[in-house]
Specification:
This protein is of the alpha/beta class. It has 2 domains: 202 residues, Metallo-beta-lactamase, Chain A (4-Layer Sandwich); 108 residues, Oxidized Rhodanese, domain 1, CATH 3.40.250.10. It contains 12 helices and 19 strands. The longest helix has 12 residues. The mean pLDDT is 94.
């Protein structure tokens, strides 16, 4: 396994590892602004990009993954709960991502976001933003959950050998790496704290929302990167009423007229997760332009549906803005619907 120095030399961290025998490479958490630099560096090192992994949906910088996937033959791998349709391969806890002889073992470490993974490779672990050097990623928006984060760090990452080198997706203090043992003993956020103490601390932090969350997070969640796309703001998104899969299933049993609006891409609609019987497909990118087709449903109950419940929350907020009165979102989307073993059509 060939490991390279971190590629950005900034606050966002992008890592490159490669197989010496096949020259196949993996890039972890690329930043859009630096894609040209990565491609030049790969060429200089005579490496072929085989796989791109985002450890989670980033809120602070546009991901470079979509562009790298489009410009090369590389696969884009993310966790099963990643909202974006651009992913070519979804993984879960225990899966192994390969690039030649390089093996990245996936740990599911939610908490910073619901789709956060860490990647173990040999003597090192890439922790995304769940565990930082001397800190932890925030857990107060985009589906974060500080209790889940505590469990991910304490039960999964701290269970790795103490000597494991640890590389986060961000660092704001000029650190480049740490070890699991060091963080276990000295990380001021979490070392020595109980779960309750940790969640209390996280709830008290009250950070401002990151700059440009509108311009960054939603394009990363949707792969819609269009200056004309007007995304709802966070207040509008937070107002969207959420229904669990079981609650939506109960509504269906009542047989009152209901619009099930699936906003995924056509290949997802007929893909592995399937769709709910009777649902209407209008991809999110077309929704604003096709809303007039849905006029008849303005006074009906509408349930917006997508893969993990993120794009559909955006869709629900757009419809509310257009005067639809009873709009709900299927919480956690078709991933959860399938996990609950509710019926699907393909
Ligand atoms: Fe993050």
């Amino acid at each position: 396994m060939l490991v390279f120095p971190e590629l950005n030399r900034g606050k966002c961290k992008t890592y490159l590892i490669a197989c010496e025998r096949t020259r196949k490479a993996a890039i972890i958490d690329p930043v859009k602004d630096n894609v040209s630099r990565y491609l030049a560096y790969l060429a200089y090192q005579q490496l072929k990009l085989d796989v791109v992994v985002d450890t989670h949906t980033h809120a602070d910088h546009p991901t470079g993954s979509f562009l790298l996937r489009d410009l090369t033959d590389a696969r884009l791998v993310m966790h099963r709960r990643a909202p974006v349709p651009a992913v070519t391969e979804h993984v879960e806890h225990g899966d192994v991502i390969t690039a030649g002889d390089v093996q990245l073992r996936v740990l599911y470490t939610p908490g910073h976001t619901p789709d956060s993974i860490s990647l173990c490779a040999g003597d090192r672990v890439y922790t995304g933003d769940v565990l930082l050097i001397g800190g932890t990623g925030r857990a107060d928006f985009a589906g974060g959950d500080s209790g889940q984060q505590y469990d991910s760090i304490v039960l999964k990452l701290f269970a790795l050998p103490d000597a494991t080198l640890m590389f986060p997706a961000h660092d704001y203090r000029g650190n480049t790496s740490s070890t699991i043992g060091h963080e276990k003993r000295h990380n001021p956020r979490i070392a020595g704290r109980t779960r309750a103490q940790y969640t209390e601390l996280m709830a008290s932090l009250n950070f401002p929302l990151p700059d440009k969350i509108q311009e960054v997070l939603q394009p990363n969640q949707t792969a819609i990167d269009d200056d004309k796309a007007k995304f709802p703001d966070l207040a509008q998104l937070n107002r969207v009423r959420q229904l669990t899969a079981d609650e939506v299933n109960a509504l269906l049993a009542k047989k009152e007229p209901l619009l099930l609006l699936d906003v995924r891409e056509p290949n997802e609609y007929s893909g592995e997760l399937g769709h709910i019987r009777g649902s209407t497909l209008v991809p999110l990118r077309e929704l604003a332009g096709r809303a007039t087709e849905l006029e008849d449903h303005k006074n009906r109950t509408v349930v917006a549906i997508c893969r993990s419940g993120v794009r559909s929350t955006t869709a629900a907020a757009i419809l509310e803005g257009l005067g639809f009165e009873r709009v709900y979102n299927l919480k956690y989307g078709m991933v959860e619907w399938n996990d609950r073993r509710l019926p699907v059509e393909r």
